[in-house]
């Protein structure tokens, strides 16, 4: 086969032509033979069975019938017309109906000729009908490629309107296999094929488009899913290895007095085993000659800040500066306050830079950064401005990194001649399967235990009918000197509605918790930032006992004295949001509670979410359930799910295949990093072709 055959532009395929090619490109991104070959079916229909009209049931199923058209008529309706054909076999009659494309259909239909029709059955009165059936003359049907399982390809309204139906796409696919003689270059090595008992690339492609039976289809799917995930992992792993070879880091060889002084005299509590393990992993990275790129995952309250501080002290011990970047002013200020408190009277200069930092303070800050007097800078996006220049930035830490774009993160890289070491922190637990796919090029550390003295938060689900009891419980907790959050959902579509929800709730709480005995703060999206900060501040200082808020408090606020989190209309929140909100309490030594309030009408999915929250505090377990419920796209947000533009594999359903693929990619790159062995030539060719197409992976950092 000519190696460039699959690069042929799609208009050259018999039966396509320029107009269809334009539609295929606009709707499905198909420009070449290869793109068409990799348009995999969504599902399959069993075409081995032919029904008689007398056997039909109003089940809404797709069926196949042999018969002939005896009569055609056009019927007027409220809007436009429909074309109706009377279709008969020896057991009865039914209707075939078209709502558009009448002229072309009328001209091409043959009366009294045997046809095979295929489509979804509906019933009006006593008559069965089939709207927009797929049709083929019986004589042609008997000669075509015998497909027992009929593939159903992805489609759009525009494709159907332009006459590119599933049948037309199937015909194009048949033509492509005729022109290629069904021969496609192998892209895996013999040893992988033999070890995993995989069928060849040509067999897999034939059986994904024209499967004879379920067994062959399953083999084809496994082979193609493995291959897709294998090459994704190849790209990630080789990117990681390349970065380690190419991008030299600044080795932090000294463990100096700042690090040991803090460890011996300022540590507020003993480090957990998990924290010690993570610090060791990071120290190994920082001591090597390669630039560190590590993802640190740890649930809310697991003690990531201490780990971050100890890494920054290592940088200072080695003559470098460090910075910590957070997505919001509130979070940046909290980090700053927390770090200052931990450092106590140590000789470490630390400063805060946000959008609200005064000009005079900024000038001073810029000077101190450039002359090296400032050791640690904590800030928001303001840190990325060109004006902010470091004397010698050695370590950059990014908190809640999914809230920063890639371009913003790469700006940090350019804050020093030699790129700084990078530590990315997140409290949003990322399921292992996703981490392997999205962050497979980063080293991953996990803090998976809570600091001593912290008690697990008790979570319960209560219906609105129990509200009085819940209010009684809140009063008891306030009596003990505790504080309470009451959170209302915020659903983008309707700010007015949300505001009403919040205000109604606020009014009923004010009635039940009257002043002066109770003081209540309120925070929502319509307030000015200064007013928001003022209300938050009152709550942090303990001047108010109840904070009524929308989800603006999801990230950040640290109030150890707050021990109760009430989430109203909890069924309207996603799992990760519920988990993040629950993490706002349980920060002190007292027992904390999270109460999920809902109405009685709950969808199955909402019930699963609530049951998951009640049964576990483990963020990773919750993230796995969330991934199953929502899929990777919703979980990571659009800008990151687009990175996994997978054609056939699904990282949730196929996570076992993903693990196998990662294992084999790792083994291969260990044994033959440049893919020079003869048996790996097919892999090298396929891999270099993908790399020419500059995929998504370049953008993950």
Write the layout of secondary structure elements.
Elements: H1 17-28, H2 33-37, E1 43-46, E2 62-76, E3 81-89, E4 92-98, H3 102-108, E5 114-120, E6 122-124, E7 127-131, E8 134-137, H4 138-143, E9 149-152, H5 157-161, H6 166-180, H7 190-195, H8 201-209, H9 214-246, H10 257-265, H11 273-287, E10 293-298, H12 304-317, E11 321-325, H13 329-343, E12 350-353, H14 359-371, E13 376-379, E14 393-399, H15 406-413, E15 421-426, H16 432-438, E16 443-447, E17 458-463, H17 467-479, E18 483-487, H18 495-512, E19 520-523, H19 529-541, E20 546-549, E21 562-567, H20 575-582, E22 593-598, H21 604-615, H22 619-636, H23 638-641, H24 655-671, H25 681-692
Parallel strand pairs: 4-7, 10-15, 10-16, 11-13, 11-14, 12-13, 14-15, 17-22, 18-20, 18-21, 19-20, 21-22
Antiparallel strand pairs: 1-9, 2-3, 2-5, 3-4, 5-8, 6-7
Helix pairs in contact: 8-9, 9-24, 10-12, 11-12, 21-22
Record keyword descriptors for this entry.
Rossmann fold; 701 residues; alpha/beta; disordered C terminus; seven-stranded mixed β-sheet
Task: Summarize the structure in words.
The chain has 701 residues and is α/β, with parallel strands linked by helices. Among the domains are: 48-146, Nucleic acid-binding proteins (OB fold (Dihydrolipoamide Acetyltransferase, E2P)), CATH 2.40.50.140; 257-447, P-loop containing nucleotide triphosphate hydrolases (Rossmann fold), CATH 3.40.50; 458-616, Rossmann fold (3-Layer(aba) Sandwich), CATH 3.40.50. Helix content is 42%, strand content 18%. The chain contains 25 helices and 22 strands. A 7-stranded mixed sheet has the order 6-7-4-3-2-5-8. Helix 9 (214-246) crosses helix 24 (655-671) and helix 10 (257-265) packs antiparallel against helix 12 (304-317). The two termini are 38 Å apart. The model is unreliable at 634-643 and 694-701 (pLDDT under 50). Its EC number is 5.6.2.4.
